[in-house]
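A brief tutorial aside. Many learners find it easier to grasp structure tokens once they have seen a single protein encoded end to end. The record that follows does exactly this for ATPase AAA-type core domain-containing protein. Read the sequence first, then the structure, and try to relate runs of similar tokens to stretches of the chain.
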Amino acid sequence: MSRSDDGDPQNKNRKRNSSGAEDSSSNSNHPAKKLNTGNDVKKRPVGRPPLNKAKGSGASGEENSKAGLNTENLGHSDSKDKKDQSLSLIKTTEQECIPVEESYLWDKSRIIQYQDNTLWMHGILTRAGYNGVCQALGHNWDLEEEDRDFTANMIVHCDIKRQWDIQRLERSLGKFLSCSGNREDDYLDDLQSRNVYKDTQIYGVPTLYYAVYSRDVRKVEKWLREGADPNLATNISAALFVTRQCIFPVNNLPVIAFAALLGEPKIVRMLLGFGAKSSVIPSVLRLPYIKPQIFQLKSWEAVRREFLDNVTTNKDTEWCNDVVFNRLRKCLNLSMRYDLHRGDSFKVTERHKQFAKSPRWDCSPLFRARFDIVGQEFGLKKLLNHVLMMTEKPDRGVKPTVLLFAGPSGHGKTELAKQMERYLGVPFHSENMASVKREDEFFGPHKPYKGWEDGSPVNNFLADNNGKRCIVLLDEVEKTGIDIRNALLVPFERGATLSDRRGGSSKMDISKVIWILATNALDSTIMGFYEDKEPITPQLMAKEGQEFGVKMRKTLHGVFGAAFTSRIDLIVPFFPFSPDEQAVLADLEIGERKSQFKQPISLDPENRKLVGNINLSMEKDYKVCRIVARSYMVEEGVRSIKREVDNLEKEIFDQYLDASEDAITEEDQNNETEYTLKADKTQGMVRVDVGKTTPKLQLG
């Protein structure tokens, strides 16, 4: 693709040498670098890399010569021989892509050309097109030979919740495993040791990239759980293109950057949770997370200088070219930047991982919780370290673990307990203690009193998980009476003291139970410390955290008594959110509404959805979110911010309702409308602007 020299700040100083070639030696003190585009073939089908048959792949030469996808007549299954037809259903249309010439590292004309176009992956059909292929294939899913295009579409469009889809996908992926053994026995041993999620590629692109392209966070999690590397970086420029016309110029694209370019914060968070490095994203685009340095650069020349001086010279970010750099400027929203910051500031070391991978109990997934909780870094670190200590002391006598989560409502106590259930993969039971008044309501009546055979929810849960690791959350524990607290003293101290109230004679083993007590009893103590010491930094807590812990425990003595308090192993404080964290919460809430509005319109009476096909965006997200965050109240926590975002949702609905007097029709199902949230600083409010309506883009 030839590019004009318009807009290139270095063009004025370029000279021609005697042979007519451009000479950049007289440019600025930062000599221009050549960009290796990887396009050694001048013309070939859009996005198609050179097709080299992998050793041992079993791909035929005829199959490797296929050029793409032909979606004509998809969905018609009247062929007499579907088996012969299956591999020919997916054919790409021969197109000529405009060759990408070598250029200087910063080319303004190229940046402008690529900055707003939609990214596509080669050979991926729309959902309707894929369903048409599946219908034509019928039950002939076990293709005799590997079919790259069809398998790529399976990754993008399959339903990860359906076991049949997973089995079918794994069979197809298995055909792409290449083995190094020469003898048949070596070949089979090598094949069994390979992983269809980690070790497979399609046209040289690891299949994790196709999972990311599906925009399905559960699918990405499946790949990562099965061993795919979250720090993959590979050349996918030949499989990635824009507006179906030209190859997207990028080499060695990290998979986390790919997720960011697609505008998928949940997938970015998932990759970080599995160990992706934040440092591959240029720091100027993400730090400080509330308003990165890039937003403070006012001129095009300042942006160019920052890119040339700091991005191209950094080992972690040297992969990033001018096009990707400027697209990331727009794609990295506030919640992504916060998660990337969290990856920098809340590190998990190799020693942490070693302790977590205990042969008795693998608790390493719990490290991912730091990306699901906003703020609360001090409490999270204390909790994680305590859990790691538990892995080294699995036989703590017979004493269960008793944790107390303390802090104002709406600041993450219940959410963290639920994340512990999710990541530790253990049974979970929650009990609101405000509604439990007597000991026999909590544990169940003794035999032969009325109702003894029914037990109680807590009693039955402990009996069902006898001797197993599980979690019991007691919410609002400060509202319990003295008789319930006294009844808990012995179970908190020794784990083999309770009998099943439904008539069991032997004692239940509850030594592996993790009791979590959530309370507001320490609100005044926590708020007083926060108001005196804010901001709550790691440096502050390193100096004063121990003394603060003693103060909290003394306060608990006055609320619960010394006997009950002494059985609590760890107190985890939850502080109010800082102003920047409040803005992050606003962005997360707006992001949830964005996903809901993006859903397609449906006129089907059984699945009616009249509000949809809305592309919601923010202009200068940090300004919008700071205005929304003004609604934050410590007493309500995140609920106060959620209510303000609900008001914005109502305003969007009002404008959607008044957009036309006509009823919504099938034509509206094929269009989408731009809605933009803008900060009005003069009025101190967020304004909703309605933009243009355009044909809806289909994934493919």
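Self-check: The chain has a mean pLDDT of 82. If you spotted this yourself, you are ready for the next section.
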